[in-house]
Amino acid sequence: MSAASEDNSPGKCGIVVLNYNGRDVLPGLLASLEKIDYPDFRVFLIDNASTDNSADLTDDWVDKFPIKIIRNDENLLFSRGNNVGIELALEWGAEYVFLLNNDTIVPPGILTELINYMDGKDKVGIAGPMIHFGAPASTIWGAGGNVSTWWGLVRHRGIREKDQGQFGKPAKVDYISGAAMMIGKEVINAIGMLDPDFPMYFEDTDFCFRARKAGYESWYVPTKPMIHLVSVAAGGQASKFKIQRRFSSGMKFFARHASWYQWPTIILGQVYEAIRVGLMVARGM
Q1: Is residue 155 a part of any domain in this protein?
Q2: What is the mean pLDDT of the chain?
Q3: Distance between CA atoms of 147 and 154, rounded to whole angstroms?
Q4: Which domain CATH number covers 143?
């Protein structure tokens, strides 16, 4: 779904990295981006008004790979912050836009693997890789995700399973996480960017559902695994901030994409989720 560039690659790829107070994690990501093997990419690092001067860490990499740094005057949160980078990537001429969290570490071939899978497949508008937790080793964070609009449940495929090759084949999924989401520019042209009505959480799920309504599919691609350190900017995986944001955005998502007759079971599903998350917090997970 792209036009080949002069070097016969499927086209330019803009990597959008949204950074907020990422001093502890950003160097790891930047070091991995230096090893990217894709022939035509540029990093657009959008700093969301960090207070730890973490954006200054990028100065050591400006001569190592193409990177443009934008410092927002305020914290625009996830959707609006990423939209700044998406717009810049498209202005640069990107055929593909790769949203990437600042608390990730990527393998050198991740762009090549994702884009090669998408190239020439008109319906495949969004793709995502295998993602592992930082620890324990080889523990799956996600291999794409599924949504039940009957029960109001959203799940990463394989989360917390040991990676034993069970997700070794490409699969059409309901959504790709915004932690590592490859998007063809045709999708953005068709449906727009991330919806600011979802400032943080469910913006990626909503984007994939809007894309599906426009005729585009989301696919998990079994790449070499990347690492996600998980929710650093939100204060941790089970922080009060994250739980509150996820719940409010989730209710908004199902109000938009579920049918009225599914709400009785959605409410039951949310009760289940509240109990599940409460147990996770109690166990320190």
Answers
A1: yes
A2: 90
A3: 5
A4: 3.90.550.10
